[in-house]
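Hi R.,

Here's the chain you asked about this morning:
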Amino acid sequence: MQKAAVGDRKSSKNRHRGTDFTIDTELQARLVSLPMPSYRHFFPIFLATTALSTALGLFAQEGKVKLGQRSALTFTQGTPMAGADQLKMRLRAAEMPGLLDLSRESYEVIVPRSYKKEVPHGLFIWISPNDKCALPADWEKVLADRRLIFIGALRSGNNREVFSRMQLAITANDQMRQLYNIDPERVYVSGHSGGSRVASMLAVAYADMFSGAVCFMGVNFFFPTQGKDGTLYEARYIPHPEIATLAQAESRIVLVTGDKDFNQDNTKAIYEQGFQANDFKRVKLFDIPGQGHGAPAKQWLEKALDYLDEGKKLGR
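And the predicted structure, written out as tokens:
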């Protein structure tokens, strides 16, 4: 990929604990030529070795989940894909990510009332900017109507360290595939504001686990971009080139902003100078007239999901 051009720097956006970390450029140089372990190859082996544990109900408190209702869910089994070595390699982080103690974590999940094990469903993993994982009520109906299972971690807001937020989403991705009949072509990560920035990084750095993303009012990229007034938006991570190439060719990503959203300039700069300039094939921008930084009306979620699901229909 060719680095996007950036002009004179005016200022730099402040870093935030919940969305940013330090890039290890020396690690980048050492790893650039190494082959990347892929979840697509690893998952069947992991699934075979853990099928018995799943059958015995050791992964989660599934019995508490009631169809059509928001239910609490906890996991007892983590995934190597959320391990420190994977995060460090995939994101070029200088810091060493910590271990995630699942005994202290919990999620909320909504499985559509119509769910049947013989019918594959999609998975919609939500990263909230606050410690709750609430959605507008009419969004929940949109997800249910489209056979999308919702899951979001509690205590995963912007005040939480970024690696933990990622680990929670990656763990949900892996463990929900053990519990439910999940269509791997419809595993989407999404979020709002700071949560959306985390989702945007996972969409690229873990493109072998997430087939698409909807980023509401927040996005990060791995090259610097520049706003209309000269503001510099720094590179926030450096994905492994093999996985970034997969994201470039196959991942479907929707960016949502509005002309009253304070992140509009940042979002449009990344869309144009980041994704478009670096030849990402399937990235779409929705710039909503009159929309501020809050959650948009349900029709914009529907439009975003239409675009993501189009990839399933086209076989990519």
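Residues 162-179 form the longest helix (18 residues).

Let me know if you need anything else.
M.
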